[in-house]
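Moderator note: this is an archived Q&A kept for reference. The question asked for a predicted structure of one protein chain; the sequence and the answer are reproduced below.
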Amino acid sequence: MLARHSTALLIAALAVVPALPAGTAQAGVRQPAVVSQKPVANTPHVLDGIVNAIALIGGTVVVGGDFTAVSDAGSNTRLSRKNLFAYDLRTGRVLRGFAPEMSGPIYALAAGDDATVYAGGSFDFPASALARISLADGSAVASFDAPAYGGGVSALVRQGGRLYVGGDFAMIGGTPRTALARLDAATGAVDPTFTIEPGNPRGATVKVYAMAATGDRLAIDGSFTTVNGLRRPQVALIDLTRGRVADWRTEAYAPSCMAVFPWYVRGLDFSPDGKFFVVVTTGGPAPDTGKLCDSAARFETYTKGNDVRPTWVNLTGGDSLYSVAVTGAAVYVGGHQRWLDNPKGTDSAGSGAVQRPGIGAIHPTTGKALAWNPTRTRGIGVKAFLTTKSGLLVGSDTTKLGHEYHARVGMFPMP
């Protein structure tokens, strides 16, 4: 039963540390069709470690993770880059003048104004866990001051002049905040009116693992069972207009999966119109139990009630999903899965299962796997998706994507 999970993954899950970074997103970019199965040829290569987060600022792609070196496509020149680098989306060329020395892993990125990027993670330089970085030279923006203490940052969402920050921290910018805060995007000042507080962890500590936003709603998931004292097992919606927990609750993630995964939600993303969102999970195989372990599940954003059920569920049959990206044409899911459409599987292909190694696409309405099947070397899994008008960017820990060499970063273009 445990064969699909490496020892390192199990240890990480037990420790509940930020070793499994979150997929963080604004509402997805609408794409009119499913992307091509053949990746573009010019994306750069990350030569070691893992990619955890991707952001797009204008025509510049910023990539964060836990790595030490990169190279241009088709080049043997090794470029030293410590956990963060940038490249030109059109040409794929790594930016030579952007080489910040981040002292620890990056788990989340968000685009900033004035050619800057927000980076969150587990580092203490150039700031503690959260920094705003200039794309011009890789320096920290001094006017932004919001160090996080007592834990790291695993999720970032920017909406206009506001920056939402999630993680397992206890204080940010000198202000006590448990796992979730809203900051002034320019200065980093903590918004005193936003006091949404997750509580009662399922694991060792309260943690917001992933976030996504659309208009008037912020979705969060992670290791918590309450938000502002209201029951919200692992997933919650925040009404940003009223500044309070939305009248939306699901009990779908209340049951336990495998004991080594006390909390098991991972990535989430809204549809481009904000009407629904999809949550992906780890947890272990649980056939015929009704549990959402190792699954992707769609929920309607504006349904009200205390037991909102998923519109559809797609089970892998025993393999983790870490990231999800929703477009008008598809719900892309990534992890180290072998199959989709596999509700009967127990680390095996049950009746109706379809092979989708490492990456796949699900129909947004039916919840069934689409024919799109480029494949990737499975490894730990996809930790970062980013949808753009020109395609789907993918970040992971392996080197084969769409049957080609694309080390840890790749992009599937629009057809």
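Archived answer notes: The chain has one domain: 21-408.
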